[in-house]
Automatic annotation (TrEMBL):
Record-linked Pfam families: Big_13 (PF19077)
Entry-linked InterPro entries: Big_13 (IPR044016), Ig-like_fold (IPR013783)
Domain Bacterial Ig-like per the UniProt entry, residue ranges: 7-81, 98-177, 181-269, 273-365, 368-462, 473-558
Name by which UniProt lists this protein: Bacterial Ig-like domain-containing protein
Amino acid sequence: GQGTNVETSNKTPTLSGTAHANSDLTVYLNNKQYTVKASVDGGWFFKITEPLGDGKYDYKVTEKTTDGKTNTFNGYFIIDTKAPTNLTVEVEDSALGNATIANRPDLTLKGKTEALALVTIAVGGITYQTKADTQGNWSYTFDKNAFIINQPYNYTVTASDAAGNKISVNGVFRVDTITVAANIDTNSNSGDKNDNITNVATPTINGETAAGAKVTLVIGGKNYTTTANSDGKWAITVDSLKDNTYNYIVTAEIDGKKNYASGSVVIDTATITPTAELDESSDTGIKHDNITNNSTPILTGQAEAGSTIKLTINGSIYTDIADAHGNWSIKITYPLWEGVNEYTLQAEDKAGNFSDILTGHIILDSKLDVPTATLVESDNSGDQSDNITNISMPSLTGLAEPGATVTIKISDHIYSTIANTDGTWTVQVTNPLNEGVNHYEVEVQDNAGNTKNITGDIVLDTTKPTLTDVKIADQIASEHDNITVQDNPVFTGKVDDITATVSICFGEGNEKHLVTVGDDGHWRYQHNSPFTLGEHQFTVEVSDKAGNTSSSTYDFEVISPEQVPVPLDEQRLPVEIEGAALSGAQVELLIDNELYSTQVDSTGKWNILTNSYTPGKYDYELKITHPSGETITDKGKVDITNKPLAIDNHHESLINTSAKVDDSAFIHSALEDVYINHQEQE
């Protein structure tokens, strides 16, 4: 490889470098060779012990690594022990031919020295550096504010060659020139007088310098000249400039003395109308609608960076300055009044431009009426005011602030809608309600974020009420249901829901009459006009509060008193008594002190038809006399009804007269062989 090449003033320099760890090196220099061992980290150095003379020296380093490989490095170095022999220093454009006096503040020191030498200038405690060119020329221009005018400054200039050999020169200089100042004329500097930003497109730049000095202004690519008056004052009005930032330079010159002043001016004739809206923290409810329930909100917006914002609202004035990004924010400290609050907003930028006036308003809405909610009329079956219905998916309706969001939670389901412009709202329940009480909550939130809640219940009742025991209270007998001699009878019944409404109607399509239901569910109704004789119908309808309805129709008859049938228990009817005994036997029956007799026929049967009796129990005596003279008797009570009594057991003991039968047993058997028929009269 190629080694690093350097110059040095050291006659016994040290060569150093890096190689492979522990490798063996051979250095070939000045027709001699030297051996060097690389360290464990590969570093190596070789100190030349015999002084060398000035000149260029080539060298070669060969490396033999531990694994037998060979590498070669070539290089050279220069020994230079001679310092530069020449170094001159002078002030460029010196005043009055004096090389130590500068006629301008941005003075330049220059001179000659060895080619490519490093030139260091030490003055006023500060070091400056430059480099000589290939011809040995060098120069350095100081900033125009580096030195105080007419004050001497000692300096040292040192030139160093590549080998580090140095030569130095000491000297003194001073700046002997005129002063000059430049700025924007006050009348041209609109807005802030200290910011050099103006909306005047043809600004005047003025200042002071030496009396009679020639003043040159360079701005916007044009040169303007004037002469300072006897007081040293000068002013130049430039041609119209477009909106932009302009740097300018002013040069003042007299008697060979020259000075400079510089500055910048911003031409800004454009205006930007600011924006304004409620800050997010103050914009309650729906965003960006300028409606809030915060009486002291924050307004924010955008404007030209650095411009002053003036907000006027309800007679109060607030100001702010837009930041570097144009953002501004104003907290309204005087509470707004309920309703519309008009405001105006105007921005003034740094150049003094006033924006168009922005008008706007903030609506303070901190109040919200309590909403209403009820079942829609078509779904509020039964009583329209009780929120009891038999519709499982009804609709709720009510009133709220127009545009407000209405949210209903019922039976773990949530529904929402927006109130109409007239404040009405309606929500359809799409999930069936539970039978019984269903609690609901209605929350209304208006555009300002105000909320109100109401709660209520909807009762779902789909069970129909039941009618029982419907009849006419004045019917003539239970056997003749709903027959009455009353032409204005009383109708009665019972319902299982005491809150239900009961009505009665006579004949199809006729007027319904409401009936009062008692605490026990019983009801009664007496018609307000008499019915004609004959058959009629009445219908009883019952409706509960949910609107569930059931009805039944009944017949009834109005008859005259003459048509009233005699009750069965009051009718007198003849009684037919039958029995069985030995053929030819004589039968005698004494009942209610009346004696009846007959004879058993050839078939062994007998029959007696008595006079008329009303139903009831009567004493009797029964006597049966056999042709042989044998007699059997029985006594007791017989129950005569209007229904036949039939005893089918025919005891052979009445036929077999030779049988010896106990009297009591025989008499009992005889009674069981008796048939009693209460005959209905024709």
